[in-house]
Amino acid sequence: MCNCTSGNLEIPGLVLRTIPERRTYIFIMIAKSRKVTPPDVATLTKAQAKVELKRLALEIESHDKHYYQDDAPKISDADYDALRKRANTIEARFPELVTSESPSQKIGAQPSGRFAKVRHAVPMLSLGNAFSDEDRDRRGAEDRRPLIVAAL
């Protein structure tokens, strides 16, 4: 249920106050101050999906900064991937909400300048979102490139 009265957009558990110049900051503080399970994407209205996608974009952007620039991630890779998956699911259901600022249109953040570039003798291959043996095995079946594991 979306209540758009008195300059506020409300979704159960989330509120976006329409205060000029501070909208994003206030929205993040309210969203983080409440420990609620976000509504199922299948039940979101377009207005709710727009707000949820904005919230996810801001949260993902914050985590990207912590990970890539500060070398200090605040959440696990699995939790991060869940945020991206939720954003992608919303964008698939409401493709008209995809913009250049959408999480699916960005990759990470500017890397920190504190780290030197490294040239690997063997190309680094991504396992994608492989968090279990089944994920790894499925990825191996889909990608017939050899997976080389170096002993440390």
**H-E order:** EEHHHH
Strand order of the largest sheet: 1-2
**What share of residues are in beta strands?**
5-15%
Low-confidence stretches: 1-7, 22-30
CATH homology superfamily of the domain at 8-111: Helix hairpin bin
Major sheet characteristics: 2 strands, antiparallel
Global outline: globular
- What is the CA-CA span between the terminal residues? 54 Å
Average pLDDT, all residues: 75
What is the CATH class of the domain at 8-111?
A: Mainly Alpha
In terms of structural class, how would the helical and strand content be classed? mainly alpha
CATH architectural arrangement of the domain at 8-111: Orthogonal Bundle
Output the number of helix runs: 4
What does this structure look like?
This protein has 152 residues and is mainly α. The protein has a domain at 8-111: Helix Hairpins (Orthogonal Bundle). It contains four helices and two strands, in the order ββαααα. It has a two-stranded antiparallel ribbon. A hairpin with a 2-residue loop joins β1 (8-11) and β2 (14-17). α2 (46-69) runs antiparallel to α3. It is globular and about 50 Å long. The termini are far apart. The model is unreliable at 1-7 and 22-30 (pLDDT under 50).
Features:
152 residues, two-stranded antiparallel ribbon, 41% helix, single chain, mainly alpha, Helix Hairpins
Nutshell version of this structure?
This protein is mainly alpha-helical and 152 residues long. Helices cover 41% and strands 5% of the residues.
Helix-strand layout with pairing:
Elements: E1 8-11, E2 14-17, H1 23-33, H2 46-69, H3 77-93, H4 133-142
Antiparallel strand pairs: 1-2
Helix pairs in contact: 2-3
